[in-house]
Amino acid sequence: MGYSIAEAARTSGLSIDTLRYYERINLLDPPARDAAGRRSYSDEDLAWLSFLTRLRTTGMPIRRMREYASLRRRGIASAGRRKAILVEQRAAVADRIAELQACLEVLDYKIANYEHLEQNIPAVQHEASA
């Protein structure tokens, strides 16, 4: 099935400008064209866009994404390097998750502390007025 650029944007959650940009910087292969010359994105294109979006969400730089996309075009011969890129990115994500987990623990501690204070406010105020 072919998707117009507007449909591809809506489905992928990316803007039309981003789709054109990804094509211009070679992250996305130029899509097929319909009889009128308009871009026609395939299900495979949309799956690739979904993967690119995930990579961006992990914080992967565009430069590294472009390297990955270039390697992808080379096929199976580049599988080892593509895997290495993903392993490196996974490590960076795991480090970020650990950092965020530590932040979450601090927030939980502070929230629990404030809840404890709030529970004891009426008793403290009552004692002060007595």
TrEMBL record:
Q: Does the keyword DNA-binding apply?
A: yes
Q: Which CDD domains match?
A: HTH_YyaN
User: Which superkingdom is the protein from?
Assistant: Bacteria
Q: Which UniProt keywords apply?
A: DNA-binding
Kindly name one Pfam family recorded for this protein.
MerR_1
What Gene Ontology terms describe what this protein does at the molecular function level? DNA binding; DNA-binding transcription factor activity
Q: What PANTHER family does the record tag this protein with?
A: HTH-TYPE TRANSCRIPTIONAL REGULATOR ADHR (PTHR30204:SF98), REDOX-CYCLING DRUG-SENSING TRANSCRIPTIONAL ACTIVATOR SOXR (PTHR30204)
Q: What is this protein called?
A: MerR family transcriptional regulator
Please report the organism this UniProt entry assigns to the protein.
Prauserella muralis
